[in-house]
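Why does residue order matter? Because the sequence determines the fold. Keep that principle in mind as you read this record.
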Amino acid sequence: MDSSSQGSMQISTTPALLQLDQLLPLLSSGPYSSSTLSLLAALCTELKLVGPELERSDKDKLDTLQTLLTKICQDRDLDLVLRLQVLEVIELRTLGWKSNEGVDNYYKERFTQFEESRRKEQERKEAKAVRSRDAGVKKIRENQSGSKSSDQEQVDEKDKIFVTVNGVKLFISSTSQELSASAKKFLENHFSNQSMALPTSKMKYTRTDLLTLASSTMAKEAPLNWDKLAKTLPTVIQRRSCSSPSPTANQVGGGDSSQSQMSKQKNTALPGNLPIIRNLGM
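Structure:
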């Protein structure tokens, strides 16, 4: 072999030797940095070209490297394509750096499969990121739209015609604004003129009780504000002299005077347990 061939061989193995010397201490223990793994992938490519020459000049270094590469192939945390490159170098050295068609085709197929899987996985991640981004944008738009709708509803409610009845808003809707205004006015007059029901007492008196009350001395005294109270009595029991300051049994209800006199003779004193209600309705 002439000197020119030796110089050419020396030049071709120098990059691989430099990478090998740099990697051996870095691969002695993990974890491995991304730069170390990138350098290892480049060394695998170089060894496929200059492996036979390094085998003759630096066999001991290749032996040390193969031990480290075997551990790397078993590390499931590393990239699958990188592990496949390392396995290819180990197998190629085992075959004496002599490749054959069967081995070459096997690794070509495997690399194609892994690259396809990697491409699909990347596309899946990108599609997921796009969906997540679109969902975020959609949610923001919905929130903005919901806020605008709420504001619009508040504005619409202010513009609506309504009548408040016992604290409840009764909305009036019509295609005619004039008709809505008329309906509002009618309803306001209707509910404002409704008479409030007077409270009713649960007390009940027998005829004897009423006669006893009528015969008492208190019954001869006019209630407070009698002039006003008399006007609230039903007309069926009113007399023209209803404004008299001292109403009697004959003036209210037209009671029987003889029976009242008899009741007065029998019992001139009120029972202690008989309730007396004055100024009812005040």
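The first helix runs from residue 3 to 26.
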